[in-house]
Amino acid sequence: MSLRDLLRDETLASMSRSERLAALCASRLYFQRPDSPGFLVSETEAGPVVPVFTSFEALGLFAGPCGWASTTVADLVELLPEGVRALVDPLGPRTFVLDAKALEATDAQGEHDGGA
Prior knowledge:
The chain is an alpha+beta fold. The protein is 41% helix and 23% strand.
């Protein structure tokens, strides 16, 4: 299941919180790779972000031909430098910010709700 699938209302409605979190963490994101190891970080008014995409095609529309890499959501939030968040699908209609705190809050809420 892709992150794009998870964002569709009908898919989300049929899943428990723990199922959504597990699927989200396993989803693959694509990002532009700089010449040196690390992430291409953009400074914004809201702080530093790494633009990431739910598809290779969306990355191509954003960055054109470029070096790229992909990883799971779970790995991405662990690899991001302190204070840097991921901006998912910045050109899309359902852009959102992703960071470790957001995943932890979702996980904690799922545990509080009994996983449902």
